[in-house]
């Protein structure tokens, strides 16, 4: 599938709808979402709570099923993509298994996919180095700091070399300093590996700093209100966040959020 | 030294002083020894008030050691004069010994900066010392107060009986603990574990099997045991069947709860790897359920023993812990009944201890077992 899919977008959503049945009537988590994400993009989804950004990510991951419209992941249905191991998913919390060492946590997807032990060890070592956790492989998750645990969970999502990475507010629970550091590392990782990354966040600076495109969403019903292309240079030191261009883009995102949000 | 420790020391000193005064005012048997003992212990208890520093004040935990020595010395003295006619002073001295023993344990447990080896010795010594004290007081009371052996034989008598009948005890142990309790335990826990996994997998069984398990667990053992004797005969098989019935439900309920204990995020995680039902079970759900399962195994280890012993009251060949207890009680040989109880208690404690050890190995990752140093 890797030869002929260079032209197909990583994700293509067309009039995507998802309605939950709650006690007090239907909740439109997603309504008529049209979205195309090209291979190699770094796309951030930003919006207030309840705007459906996490739901959208979960639909891509086949953890939720849309009630209308179509969506394809690498030209396949989400289910085919999931069964084929097409994406790595990073959750809000590290979700590392406490009884496994960091090494064996990262090796978990490889184990499940039936990859040989020798190759498992080699890949685990490589991803450990990639996220800067070399030498911590024998530790248990509860012996590491929150930031290191989240890096381990990113390593786990990278271990099986899916070319799509879905990240649901992965740094939301971390303090600002650790967050800056991990943002920088994530950018380098993205450049090094050329993966497509879908990144859900609450933070405007985080979204602008990381992304090539920013998808602004608004709640009730959850829909896409604006898609902003970022023309920041590829090389992004942390102090780019004080540059004029950065602030302009951030302002546009803020405006987009304000428009989509009714304060009545 | 904390205020609490000071209070215990003062009380101990006062009790010892009381022993001294009673021994002088009311001379009886061994009054010289009791007076001396009272004097020494009173001095130990009051030393903090008079700023007395003992020559023993060196090395590790010197304070705790002096109190321990005082306590043990007093106990030795009391044992040496133990007979059916204890003078009043000896009871005051017993109280003093008990308080000094308590004080020594308090100080040893409060001690900081202990080496790892010493800390583990202390943590092991405390329960041993406590148990020894209970036996000591028991011995003192039963002999000193001339309690009839039918009501409560002294530990020394039980020990003598135990030593004299090891072959009978061993046969009873094999019959009841190894054959009946252990085989019933393995069958009951094993079948409940499999049933829990099936119930979790098949909703139909959830509706059907769970109420049945609930129902069976509510049946009284005195109703079950005779029925099992009818079904499986007099020998250990019927006792094992009772144990199966008793252990099934705790294991079933706990395993089911454990299988439900995984978090949505962890299940989603494995779903993104397209994991199969079996992989999800082995790699996530069973490890999460392990602490629950061990709870059931520990509860059941004592239940199994109780079940096997009680079931022998309803028909049995002439061997077994329950059989022996019921017949020896009928012949007023209470020391033999107590020797059997010792066997049962040892077997129960040992199995519980082994399970706890195993649990710590398997669920080392659980917050309650994480070692701070690692």
Any idea what the shape of chain A is? Answer: globular
- Number of helical regions of chain A: 8
DSSP strand count of chain B: 0
N-to-C SSE string of chain A, H for helix and E for strand? EEEHEHEHHHEHEHEEH
Question: Under the CATH scheme, which architecture of the largest domain in chain B would be assigned?
Answer: Orthogonal Bundle
Characterize the structure shown.
The complex is a heterodimer of chains A (264) and B (374). Chain A is 36% helix and 24% strand. Chain A is an alpha/beta fold and 264 residues long. Chain A is globular. The N and C termini of chain A lie far apart (49 Å). With 374 residues, chain B is an all-alpha fold. Chain B has 14 helices and no strands. The two termini of chain B are 32 Å apart. The relative contact order of chain B is 0.08. The mean pLDDT of chain B is 85. The chains are: A alpha/beta (264), B mainly alpha (374). At the A-B interface, strand 5 and helix 3 of A face helix 11 and helix 12 of B.
Summarize the structure.
The complex is a heterodimer of chains A (264) and B (374). With 264 residues, chain A is of the alpha/beta class. Chain A has helices spanning 53-60, 78-83, 102-112, 117-130, 146-158, 176-193, 204-210, 244-260, and strands at 11-22, 25-37, 42-46, 68-73, 87-90, 164-168, 196-201, 213-218, 223-229.
